[in-house]
Amino acid sequence: MAAPSVHALTTDLYQLTMLQAYLEHGMQAPATFELFTRRLPPNRNFLIAAGLEAALDYLEHLRFEDADIEYLESLGRFSSEFLDYLREFRFSGSVDALPEGTPFFANEPLLRVHATLPEAQLVETRLLNLVQLPTAVASKAARVVVAADGRAVIDFGLRHAHGADASLAASRAAYLAGVQATSNVAAGQTFGIPVAGTMAHSFVQAHDREREAFRHFMATFPTAALLVDTYDVEAGMDTVIELVRDAGGPAPTAVRLDSGDLAAHARRTRRQLDEAGMMQVQIIASGNLDEQEIARLITDGAPIDSFGVGAALAVSEDAPCLDVVYKLVAYDGRGRMKLAAQKTTLPDPKQFFRQFDGAAATHDVLGLADEQSEGQPLLEPVMRNGKRLPASRRSLDEIRTHAERSLAMLPARLRSLEPATPPYRVEVSVALGEAAERTRRRLQEQ
Amino acid sequence: MAAPSVHALTTDLYQLTMLQAYLEHGMQAPATFELFTRRLPPNRNFLIAAGLEAALDYLEHLRFEDADIEYLESLGRFSSEFLDYLREFRFSGSVDALPEGTPFFANEPLLRVHATLPEAQLVETRLLNLVQLPTAVASKAARVVVAADGRAVIDFGLRHAHGADASLAASRAAYLAGVQATSNVAAGQTFGIPVAGTMAHSFVQAHDREREAFRHFMATFPTAALLVDTYDVEAGMDTVIELVRDAGGPAPTAVRLDSGDLAAHARRTRRQLDEAGMMQVQIIASGNLDEQEIARLITDGAPIDSFGVGAALAVSEDAPCLDVVYKLVAYDGRGRMKLAAQKTTLPDPKQFFRQFDGAAATHDVLGLADEQSEGQPLLEPVMRNGKRLPASRRSLDEIRTHAERSLAMLPARLRSLEPATPPYRVEVSVALGEAAERTRRRLQEQ
Questions:
Q1: Residues B79, B80, B81, B84: is their CA dihedral positive or negative?
Q2: Contacts (Cβ under 8 Å, ≥6 apart) of A235
Q3: Which of A377, A408, B239, B373 would you call most buried, defined as having the most Cβ atoms within 10 angstroms of its Cβ?
Q4: Angle at which helices B13-24 and B80-87 cross, to 10°
């Protein structure tokens, strides 16, 4: 693959104005920022970390091109000293991160960035932008996979994704959370995700008769899946069965249903197939599916073998934005926090520790980065001096396995589609609580 | 700007398998597809067309690279004849489109693509992917702008957008629908949209005292906007006012409030400013704003001059996916339609005609492309033989003006945030109704 696109100007204007002010006032001491979510969306019992690989690529390759500097100069508000600084800008800091595929909860950092204040500040917007979508989609996909209860889920989301790079990020995130394949060819090419597909209604409609359409498709791809609901599902299935019998050849791997009462259609279709001795032909369902609809179909006993899921996955439709933030927690050796209403943050560099009872996670403890706590610390070093640590690199399939194992360790109530009662517990450690109180007092005394 | 990225493999696998089947069976007669939405989201009285410029760029530049062909070959399911066809693939068809910025409704085509069946089929997925997000965001932005009732709306959505190219598309779409500026520097660079920004809480927190933070920022940017809610809004405002008095210099252009009871804070802040004789300092509000919240603040009399809107705009949060489809309406000279439950489509190439009473639009008539109807036909020729028609190119500011004027012509009830009663009427013309009936009968007789 080519070097990743850098998009240095994919940032908020205020990052650049703040940077110039930091530099003019000599504020280049070390700072620590943490990226976390303030709350889970209503329909999520957990989130799955994703997008960190892209975030680290960005940090490693961030450069301002001449055209970027020229544009900034044209705005007439930046000093030439500052533009020279940007010309030479490299991210040279450290990052600790939650490995992709790890479940996490509100207030737990996904990324802890430690660098000079200007370096750590500048990268805020793009880090949030890069981490949010994959995390939202992986978290949604985990629910869809849970709902499918062992049946395959196929990502049909490309047309609904927010562009080409969003579709890649979404397909990768869905796959790492347990989705089995994608219709997105570019995602297959880029990440090696298995690609899958059937046929569209237009293929059937372009033929004067449905029979001719099926015959043509089977001639080209003898075992490909056929879409049987363009006109009438039962008649379409009769046609498929006749064609297979007449040809005496191989049957399609599957038929797809995309409209109407999917449970009723699937039952009738299954009966038609079984009566024809075509037990091996599977049924794929699609059409505005999400985890709730999949759960209903399964509860209803619909004999569906795999589910194609589109919009719900591609944009995490019921929670397309997570409330992710990137907050300064320390500068120049002192803890920093915000006291604004409902948005108060906890100061100081943090770590969090997952607590287990045997193989089962019971709760997490959010503590200080340097405290010794029981449990498994989840943030790991991934970048030092602006360079990736090779040990932190994992293949997509390793991440997928890690996600599956980590999810299985969560309390079973979290894997319900309904809100978990009680929700997963995240405790603040005594040391962190005391640090917060000290910082709050210091700020209020000013 | 560089040539646009082509992303030929940003497509669903089934487009490629269908193409191979079409080619093997000599199905290369002319086809017409239409891109439209089957229904408006519950919270939309209209949609605003956007993304067509990017869609046409894609059609004009679509090429398969060697690496693409190699990847497809590695899948082991495509013939070498087919891969050779893709190597030479160019889109050579015609497109008629709804100009960007035009309001439209369910079942009205945004794009009508006419080409050989394989060419028109292949581009389905990416066209949907390119048109959906900008249309969703422009439509959402129009509501936000209506709610702001003449006050400025600033796009703060970059961090919540689904990646870098999604953020560009969203910022452009928001601007064309009436948003005044963006925090997204890359959108300023790419499209010439005015960029704007204030400061972040981290800037204040990095200083030991808020006063020092304001002093530093004002020293670097004397009239920049200051964020006053990091600790306590009233005390923050006292500090701003003292600093301006002490310096005897220029005041900030604005102060920003980002948390808590924005109406109460704005009233108190306005009073403080006015009592200090700083009437010209404006108040910017932000923090999880959407059109409903903005309308509430304005109804509540909050003296806010501009609104920074993030997630709601960036992903059209309450309707992040539109139900856009791309359907075959004619092949080889015959109308085509789908009869599937709830998803029946109308056959034949179409045009639609906006009907006016004076300057006010009253309703639309959806008819056949070649019929003579009253009213203003809205689809215009934009591409012939694979080449853009120069007359169809418009600058972003022209599109923005067109959007503003076209929206002003809609019945006033549509510009309410509540569902319009009755909704805008779209009639099917007699000729189109008869064509649909003929096609349905033909299909049912088979």
A1: positive
A2: A210
A3: B239
A4: 110
3-state helix, strand, coil in chain A (%, to 5): 40, 20, 40
What is the band of B3 on the pLDDT scale with cuts at 50, 70, 90?
very low
Please give the pLDDT value at position A446.
65
Q: What is the pLDDT of residues A59-92, one digit of tens each?
A: 999 999 999 999 999 999 999 999 999 999 999 9
CATH entry 3.20.20.80 includes domain B13-137+319-445? no
Average pLDDT along chain B: 95
**In chain A, where are the structural domains located?**
13-137+320-445, 140-314
Contact at 8 Å (CB) between A214 and A223? no
- Say whether B198-285 and B13-137+319-445 share the same fold: no
pLDDT digits (tens, 9 = 90+) for B51-66: 999 999 999 999 999 9
Neighbouring CB atoms inside 10 A of B418's CB total 8
User: CB–CB of B129 and A201 under 8 A?
Assistant: no
CATH (one of 2.60.40.1180, 3.20.20.70, 3.30.450.20, 2.60.40.1220) for A140-314: 3.20.20.70
Q: How far is B290 from chain A (nearest CA, A)?
A: 13
pLDDT at A3 over 50: no
Half-sphere exposure of A211 (CA within 13 A, CB side): 11
- Sign of the torsion formed by the C-alpha atoms of B84, B88, B91 and B92: negative
Residue from A132, A140, A173, A110 nearest A44 by CA? A140
pLDDT grade, residue B344 (50/70/90)?
A: confident
Residue B24, classified by CB atoms within 10 Å of its CB into exposed (0-12), middle (13-18) or buried (19+), is: middle
Of B21, B132, B160, the CB nearest to A216: B21
Report the chain A residue with the minimal C-alpha distance to residue B167. Answer: A10
Cis peptide bond upstream of B422, omega within 30: yes
Pairing of strands B152-155, B181-182: parallel
| DSSP notation for B432-443 | HHHHHHHHHHHH
Nearest chain A Cα distance for residue B199, angstroms = 5
Interface check B311 vs A, CB under 8 A: yes
In whole angstroms, give the CA distance from residue B218 to residue B229: 17
CATH class entry, domain B198-285 = alpha beta
Q: How confident is the model at residue A1 (pLDDT cuts 50, 70, 90)?
A: very low
SS3 of B123, please? Answer: coil
Size of interface A-B (CB pairs under 8 A): 332
Q: Quote the CA–CA distance of B284 and A41 in Å, as a whole number.
A: 27
pLDDT tier for residue A149 given thresholds of 50, 70 and 90:
very high
- CATH (residue range A13-137+320-445): 3.20.140.10
Model pLDDT for residues B267-312, shown as the tens digit of each residue: 999 999 999 999 999 999 999 999 999 999 999 999 999 999 999 9
> In the prediction, which pLDDT does B245 show?
93
A131 closest CA partner among A104, A149, A159:
A104
Cα A1–chain centre separation = 21
Report the greatest alpha carbon distance in chain A.
Answer: 88
Per the rule left: phi > 0, alpha: psi between -120 and 50, beta: everything else, B97 is: beta
* β-bridge pairing A380-384 and A387-388: antiparallel
ipTM, 2 dp: 0.96
What token pair was written down for A379? 């943030």
- Tell me the CA end-to-end span of chain A in Å, nearest whole number: 53
Would you call A188 and B336 a contact, using CB atoms and an 8 Å cutoff? no
Distance CA B260, CA B285 (A): 11
